[in-house]
Amino acid sequence: MEYRQLGRSGLRVSVLTMGTMTFGGTGAFADVGTTDLDEAARQVDMCLDAGVNLIDTADVYSDGLAEEIIGQVLTRRRDRVLVATKVRMPMGADPNDAGLSRHHVISGCEASLRRLGTDHIDLYQVHEWDGQTPLEETLEALDLLVRSGKVRYVGASNYAAWQLTKALGIADRLGLPRFVSQQIYYSLQAREAEYELVPLAADQGLGVLVWSPLAGGLLSGKYRRNHQPPVGSRQLTDWDEPPVYDREKLYDTVEVLVSIGEQRGVSAAQVALAYLLGRPAVTSLVIGARTSEQLADNLAAASLTLTAAERAELDKASAQPLLYPYWHQAKTARDRLSPADLTLLGPHLPPGSAAP
Fold it and tell me: Which residue ranges form the domains of the chain, and what is each CATH number?
């Protein structure tokens, strides 16, 4: 297992992170998975044995049940693993039971600590943007949690680039905790993060944790053109996360994944995960599985390295067009591009055309 620095922090995390959205399986989360305590313990041990040192969850997963299961599983394992959780989503009917107010951030942290059965959270992430709470208020609440020792590091999730940049600027100006990471959706099915979020991470020294790197299973090789989807599957039917805007491009990408996988004797899922691990700024992929067999297959991706030719095939099948102003910059600004610029524009430039 490889370990990478989480942004500019001193924390090192495994390139694969254990995701726990399947834990519990109550309410709407039953559609994702219904992992019970025994299976959760089995999967956690599999991850620890493979070298995974970060478990990611959120208070909203099964209304707190996922955190409770993790707390029980980690009773004798807590010192072997880092725990990340999130706050922002509704956790009750009261108008203050959601958002990123000082009230909800602090009360949410206290509740997560109780459910997790721990005295600290290693990475506390704001789960989603809250446009009605001043960023100063949110960051000051996070500062209080860090100073009290209840939180070690803070991160963001699902922010737009301008929102994240604004938060970083306020943190620097006021001496408040700086986000060390962003958790984002990024996969071969949807590479929009490459327009703004990946360059931002490279420029500002943010770690990138990727949620749903297999696009909710769409890149597993089970969804192919002219094939019936798996029995009981909701993908490409009434389940819209992640949304699919170009089904033909998805199928083209899956065919390349399957072809490379067959040539290498590995699954399409492993190829998709290995591709992301080789992308700029990516720190760790959050992997979750309904079964131990799926988890074992995903864990094997940590040791798979794709060739330049294989990566080029996948790039061609999944590439997105340059939007404005990027196509203009690729034509007229190539003499003064930064390393962050090149994470997006580099592949679109003629060889040797960019300034060193």
Answer: 3-307 (3.20.20.100), 321-356 (no CATH)
